[in-house]
Amino acid sequence: LMATPRDLDPNELERLIDLSLDARKYSYSPYSKFRVGSAILTEEGEWIQGANVENAAYGGSICAERTAVVKAVSTGHKKFIAVGVATDVNTFIAPCGQCRQFMCEFGKHLRVYLIQPDRSYKKLLLSELLPFSFGPEDLELERNSI
Predict the structure, then answer these.
(1) 114 and 85 in contact (C-beta within 8 Å)?
(2) Catalytic residue among 43, 65, 128, 140
């Protein structure tokens, strides 16, 4: 399922930043007031945006990153080059643990860009955010009988 790992070219990086910041306007966050926008570049060159959607039953909420992944997968995309994550705060905010695990399903070497409102960013590999992760390849390992 994994895309061939590569860095973004300058035009792709600018588009990732633009779309991630833009996606915040779609956030439905009446409880936390913490808007998050995300954008994904698929291996096919498609751009998919996502925003966090909260729910009065907090467990029913979904983060921007998972929204973007679900939108991508549900339209036939399963190989991702990069994901951007943008908030309204002036610090680098990383995906939550659940989002990290969710994205790991589609490649441990996914480039994750943490984006601030001033367009500054920090690039990390998903494997840096989720070391010693559990993924689809682990389900293929030989099992010892009991």
Answers:
(1) yes
(2) 65
